[in-house]
Amino acid sequence: MADTDEWIALSALQHYSYCPRQCALIHQEQVFADNVFTARGNALHQLVDQPGSDLQSGRRIERALPLSSERLGLTGRADVVEFLANGTPYPVEYKHGKRHAHDHDDLQLAAQAVCLEEMTGRPVPEGAIYHAGSRRRRTVRMTQALYEQVADTTLAIRDMLASGQLPPAANDARCKACSLIDLCQPDITTDQTRLHEARQQLFKVDD
Asked: 4-170 belongs to which CATH class?
């Protein structure tokens, strides 16, 4: 891609899959807030955010490896990429909790695989999510359907950012775990009566 302003962060795919409004607040409005979940995630990522490499059991381990896909306009870093003895890349994404009911993290991992295939010229048949809550890896197979979802989600994010509009708030069970709930204000923005009252008060001048 010629215009680097159009590059999409790999993390944006996970954010958009979880909630398009959360994605817009972070990547369009440039706002963020921590809660206990993000604090735990930050602590976990300190283990893998320092660039470096070493050899383990015949595998070359790369930490905080920069990734990009010129074709899709994606950029970011992989927590860990293990290069097998034959050179095949094996991305590993670290998450602080247990596996979620919906595999939003799989989409981010698949986007890393797309980048690695483009950068190395080698297929990436699978990768893994390391769930710190259970201290277990979960293997993720890279399928055509998952790669198509990466491309579709990247396009949807790019269209959203180009529009400059915030998607509507979900105001459902996802909001309770979101660190941006106070900035998003889903209760107010989805309640038309309260939204109207808030707009009326916004430009009210006290006597």
From this structure: alpha beta
Closest CA to 104 of 19, 6, 183: 19
Torsion angle, alpha carbons of 37, 38, 39, 40, to 10: 60
Q: 20-74, pLDDT tens digit by residue?
A: 999 999 999 888 765 434 445 444 445 556 788 899 888 999 999 999 999 999 9
The amino acid occupying position 95 is K
Give the pLDDT confidence score for residue 196 in this predicted structure: 54
Per-residue model confidence (pLDDT) at position 200: 61
Q: Domain segments of the chain: what residues? A: 4-170
**CB-based contacts of 71, cutoff 8 Å, min separation 6:** 118
Long-range contacts of 101-108 (CB under 8 A, 24+ apart): 102/17, 102/18, 103/140, 104/14, 104/17, 104/18, 105/14, 105/129, 106/140, 106/146, 107/13, 107/14, 107/17, 107/146, 107/149, 107/150, 107/153, 108/10, 108/11, 108/13, 108/14, 108/17
pLDDT in tens, 1-12: 545 458 999 999
